[in-house]
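Following up on my earlier message about coproporphyrinogen I. Here are the inputs again, as you asked, copied directly from the submission form:
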Amino acid sequence: MSIITDSNNTAANTNTVLKNDLLLRALRGDTLSRPPVWMMRQAGRYLPEYMVLRRKYDFFTRCQTPELVCEITIQPVDIVGVDAAILFSDILVVPQAMGLEVLMEEGKGPSLPMPIKSIEDFSRITVPDVSDKLHYVMDAIKLTKQTLNGRVPLIGFAGAPFTLLCYMVQGKGSKTFDEAKSFCFTQPEAAHQLMQMITDTTIQYLIAQAKAGADVVQLFDSWSGLLSPADFEIFAMPYIKQIVEAVKPHCPVIVFAKGSWYALEDMAATGAGIGVDWCIKPALARKLVGANTTLQGNFDPAKLMLSPAEIKKEVNKMIDDFGIDKYIVNLGHGITPLIPVDNAKAFVDAVKEYGAKN
Ligand code: 1CP
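Thanks, got it. Here's what our run produced:
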């Protein structure tokens, strides 16, 4: 692997120069010999080393203990060889910090026993001081940056306001988030007030992450694809735009709004890097975002069940289609628990070999 240094990198809490800064250079639009590669949900259940810690500590203990966050975050860097680490945490720590109880039930996913149903419920939530309520995240970022010692960049993240509203109103995961969407349509003033509170919290939170040392942050709008293009403009885009504009001066931002291919042009206009899922052709994604935006994606995670040889073939084709520059290789959504580690490695190796070929 070529060791590239970037003398301009000044992570807030460390003087360490990044030895591998491909991710930052791809986001800047530099000419590269190969694109960087990382995987959404790369710190997770497909890794036996994660499962050991999962059996010992409950979910929020794992999120709130900087030493555990650090260990879990670095596991895929050591084991799979990705070009970036993403902080082990969850988007639901924000609703928790705003005052809602969030439970993570093994095998069942998240649940919020007292969700928001009307404006009267707003008495139970606030825009918190994140340096107080989420200080454990910033502590974890500092420890992880120190331990990474410049090996690869660290990605911080948060959930976008519409996706967090989905959980805060529905009270649990859902395929349709019908109650959350009905809340938006029947009580739009309350929905906008709630999303503005989430936005104000998220801006503080992502800036604090950058100041603690996150090199890049990603905003996950995992459920925005449930909205029509017109409703995305009303309920998702204004908040994404506010967040990107406020955070961009502090570090590069990637927006991943799953399923919302119809909004790629508007999202790219914010100046963020843009994640795409597998439901769009690379050429159309490029056409919609224009020549100056860095794209990220879009390998179907289910294809990681193919043989390593077939994975490599598919990865080569994907890079041929997206091009090397202004592109970050990733999945089109999170890696799933049944993927063999060797297949995840084949995915990453294919990208590194693509570089060797050129
Ligand atoms: O061990 C376990 O069983 C817990 C599974 C798990 C993990 C590993 C959850 C519960 N969260 C996480 C970590 C996590 N969550 C990361 C870590 C960094 C990484 O490796 O990527 C990140 C970035 C998230 C973000 C997240 N949480 C999103 C957005 C990304 C996406 O996948 O769309 C969402 C929607 C959540 C909510 C959530 N947390 C956990 C689960 C199972 C879910 C999804 C629930 C649902 O289906 O609605």
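One observation from looking it over: The CA atoms of residues 228 and 260 lie 9 Å apart. Hope that helps, and feel free to reply on this thread.
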